[in-house]
Amino acid sequence: MHFLFEAGDSLNTPFECFIFRSESEKFPVRPHWHYFVEVIYMLRGAARMQCGESSYVLHPGDVILFHPQAVHTIFSENGEPVIYSVLKFDVNRLNMTPAYAPKVRSILKSAENQGMPIYFHESELHCEKIFERCVQEIEEKKYGYDLLIQAYLYDLMLKMIRRWQELGFQIENESFHNDGEYRIDNITEYMDKHIKESLQVQDIAQKCGMSYSYFAKKFREMYGKSCKEYMEVMRIFKVEDYLLFTDFDLNYISQETGFSDCSHMIKTFKRYRGMTPKQYRMHYQNSGTSGK
After folding, report:
1. What confidence tens digit (pLDDT) does each residue in 71-101 have?
2. CATH class of residue range 15-173
């Protein structure tokens, strides 16, 4: 049986950047949806992309945006091979929005509600370099590559938003109001922001307006692990960042990452990484490589 929902791992892989070649991948792409934003840049051939009840034919240079939870499918327009670049990302992890602007997720939702186009002709955005650089960064994974990719994604989003504004898009007060609303598909944004606090699953469920049991079930279905496990892994990732890119001591790191005490952090880290934080820091500093 073919299921429409395509699971993603927003904790371990908040964004994907790759080139899709129909001759070497499963094609056509069957109808599916996911919680990620997906943006496609056409490189070669002609592809028909269906989103909901609308259909678009993309040629080299054209771009299409698929909002989270939008059912879409892709196939060749003329039976010939197609090649396109893909950016998929968790919009809730784009956290560099300035205080005076709504979050990107709120702006995208507002644009969707106002019926802004998801298809852009090659003359509208001129964003080929953004896709090239994102694919290069994800392949090379040099120091700070994730920050660069976020910057490129902001560049791309701003190009789209400005184009929408030319077509009459208004960033209304409702967008700011939506910033403070949390649902099951964006609650990890709240968790990330408050990870150093003593978060309780019951309190997180209330943020989503759900009972504990229903939230726990839906969270596991969506993220592939329990909410408690997700927070634990999130904390481990943050510990790794401190170990690799700062010289803060372990007591300070445990406080900043939400562990009850340093010994708890050390024990949990060793369970996930097979070595203590101190051994991890020494290993990767001596090898000169990232541990991720």
Report:
1. 999 999 999 999 999 999 988 878 767 777 8
2. mainly beta
